[in-house]
Please model this.
Amino acid sequence: VDARQSMDWRSAWWQVNLNTDTLRLGLRDISLDDDTTLDLQLGGEAFVAGLLSDYWVRGEQLPERGFLASWLSASALLRRNLGGHHFVHARWTPRAWMFQGTESTDVTLPGSLRTFEQSLGYTFWGLDADPVNSNPLAWTQRARGFAVGANFTSHLRDGARRWGAANDPRNTPDRAQFIAQQWAVWGKELAPRLRLELREEARFGVGEDDLTRARVGGMTPYATNLTGAPWPAFLTSKLIAGHAGLHVAISGRTEIGAKVDAVALQDPGRVGSDELGWLGGGALFADIRAGRWQIDMRFGAALPSVWLGGTVGWGAFLGVARRL
Model:
């Protein structure tokens, strides 16, 4: 559920967004001057934050290592347009974490935790304006042109303690974690109704545990995509990923096509090593935007890998939304 309403005050609008277990209340695009805006938001997620309830190793789910996680947060996002398609932003987020075991849980929990997150970022936005991308229900933008961005984030905690399974060395975090991220997207019309789209992302984190590591696997927009792998099959501090899609427009606002994913990540076996794992997958998709409806369908497979149990992994995704 996503509700939005414009206001007469400083060109702002408010938003109420409920997505499964996550509720966000926001005041968006508060105009401070011609080039600067401010977002304010309260949020919370109940029980399955970070999908910490699902613990996967080599394609096998281990219920005894899963647990429930929730958080409450407040955030402020300051954005400035520097002109010439260049933008910078800063975000500040205090967050409170809470954890609870399930009937199967057999690990030491992190304990109640308070964090303060700070993020600085830069974006070059050279994508062509397209009215079809203004739909808030759309999972992804249809890229024509080029965009690139980078973010540097720090997480400061009120304490640090070892948690997890007795023989798990991965979750001994520092009180301060630092994360550098970079992304890029490029799209081009190859012929009438035929478009190529390339996406890339990279990440480097230090001092982390599984609360802040990147999620890899599945076909949702909430993790680094790896078709055919569980969501999320992997939690990692360091990765580089590439995605390529060939899009065919079969009507004014509907596209079908095929995409491939390739990911290199640290410690795919979740044993605390520096080993790198390489994984790949591919999918067929349909992106249907008809009137007030948005329908996304994807079906594909991951290549056999020792990190996914040595077999082909199959996956499907269906998203349906309607604008009221």
In short: The chain has a mean pLDDT of 93. Residues 166 and 227 are 32 Å apart (CA to CA). DSSP finds no helices and 19 strands in the chain.
